[in-house]
Amino acid sequence: MTTLMASRVEPGRVLAETDRGKKAAMMQYLAQKFRVDVFDILHEKGTGHWGGASSVAEILTTLYFDAMSVRPEEPRWLDRDRLVLSKGHASAILYTVLANRGFFPAEELHTFRQINSRLQGHPCMNETPGVDMSTGALGHGMSVSLGMAMAARVQKKAYWSYVIMGEGCLDEGQTWEGIMAAAKFKPERLVAMIDFNGYQLDGSNDEIMPLAPLFEKFQAFGWNVSPTLWNGHQVSEILKSLEWVRQQKDWPFALIYQTKKGRGISFTEDTHKFHGAVIDDQHYANGRPELLKTLAELEAAL
Amino acid sequence: MKTEVKLVAMRDALGQALVELGSKMPELVVLDADVSASTKTGGFAKAFPERFFNVGVAEANMADIAAGMATAGLRPVINTFSLFLVLKCADQIRNTICYNNLPVVLAGAYGGLSDSYDGASHQSILDVAMMRTLPNMVVIVPADAVEMKQALELALRRNGPTFIRGCRNETPVLFEGAEPLAIGKARKLRDGKDLTIVACGVPVVMAMEAAEQLAKDGIAVDLLAVATVKPIDAEALAASASKTKTVLVVEEHNIIGGLGGAVAEALGKHAPAKMDYIGIQDRFTESGEYNALMKKYGISVEAIVEKAKALVAAKPATKKSVRKKR
Prior knowledge:
The complex is a heterodimer. Chain A has helices at residues 11-16, 20-45, 50-55, 57-67, 91-100, 141-154, 167-171, 173-185, 205-208, 214-220, 235-247, 281-300, and strands at 82-85, 161-165, 190-196, 224-231, 253-258. By secondary structure, chain A is α/β, with parallel strands linked by helices. Chain A has one domain: Thiamin diphosphate (ThDP)-binding fold, Pyr/PP domains (Rossmann fold). The two termini of chain A are 22 Å apart. Chain B is 43% helix and 20% strand. Chain B has 14 helices and 14 strands. Chain B has helices spanning 10-24, 36-39, 42-47, 59-71, 82-88, 90-98, 127-132, 145-157, 203-216, 234-244, 259-270, 290-296, 301-313, 315-325, and strands spanning 7-9, 28-32, 52-54, 75-81, 105-109, 138-140, 162-165, 170-172, 187-190, 195-199, 221-225, 228-230, 246-254, 274-280. In chain B, helix 1 (10-24) runs parallel beside helix 8 and helix 4 packs parallel to helix 6 (90-98). The chains are: A alpha/beta, B alpha/beta. The A-B interface holds A 78, 82, 84, 124-126, 132-134, 136-137, 140, 143-152, 154-155, 157, 161, 173-174, 177-178, 180-181, 184-185 and B 29, 50-51, 53, 55-56, 58, 60-61, 63-74, 76, 91-92, 95-96, 99-101.
């Protein structure tokens, strides 16, 4: 676990920061810090999914440290905003973000995927405080988040429901059932976020099951999809994408983020080979300095 | 002299019960997969349009929408034909609803052979087996419209998932004014020392009639109606089997994994007995009139009587072996 955290980017201070520009820079740093933590844990435990966890680090950090209204001391607060990580294999980054957001002690991250741990291989809502829905089998998140958003309407509540999907989720037929149904029911405050890193388990998205043209598909299914392909590794861009959502009135919303699978390490980026591969000592020794270099740069920029 | 039997379809009872409960329970929501005219959820749709959701022929989506709603405090009842509910939503029921122990009621309409004319593609003879293997799930197979309504009320009071298997067709009302259904409790319908018959669902009435016929032939049947296949009333089963040593299970389901399996598992542990099974003999079925179909596939009063007699006839061997041990 890194002990590099500068005091000015301690999570509590990030949450309290009112200057938007400063806060964005702090979250940029935090996301990279969390990425290093995930890399450490995956190496330490010899299990987990680096590629997809790394690609969603900035999106999750921005959601939990800025966009979402949650109460770590009351994880089941009924009016909280919800997040469904449909790509549940990215659990390591979700746990890291939740721990640092105060849902449970960060030391517990060392129990990831081990017997008697609350941190299951894939997210489990009845085990881990802060997890709003268990996921793992792909393709469930769209429907579940739609149900959450529809429940808000029935109960006249104003919470937001976010779902993060990867290419694998979009391969699943059920996701398109959910996309179709969301356009029918049009619940308020439902946001689908696509972590489009271009790679699946077996190869590139083009090779395995091409999703293009994705914007047009969402449009054709009756969604209000942002025409911008957002940079999912730039916190300032993610903030802008969420501002775009708040200016819109036609539900439901889709945001597509260009990301890199295995982001942050030259040899793990843009390949399917680090989807779930063990981070062995060699990978760790070669990869960690690259992550730390970026972390130092982000710290210097604060 | 028989009194006139009142016939009510379980789906009508369910539909009416949903409307009644709808005004008492603001958190009750109903979802259907484009078969509300068949499942009879249309009444609820009319009475509470803001709490009814027709998701189209997309059952998996329906199950997970309901799961999401349940996490937010609603009490969803999802409806479609039982076969499609358990097969098309198997992943959603297991990984989302049961894994998270969410209070979703799964109302499987058209259970067993009751969608008789539609044929094997629609006949649901594996649903009980599938639902029974899911942790947190309670499985109820009502025998009449009264039990159907009570099952729904019980399910909506649970803090976890419940599968209720219905029937398409009108069936005799058996339990009006009787002790209400309780989860995990068998109904003792008859006392006898020669043979235990355990039944659930529509065939309960057949078992009642068969028991009467058997009595005329001098065979005293201990008759148990077991609506809750899971959790099963192992105590009542064991008490009966210890007395009769012989058990016949009757159900409208494949003989593999349903009530027969549940009873065998319970008795194997608590009171091993000689057993036989009335049900569909692990094969695909076909189109036809409901009663004719039931009869052809071995679920009838005659079949029960025949197997019961065979079981009882085989009993002296059991007595002999007991004597030898002594």
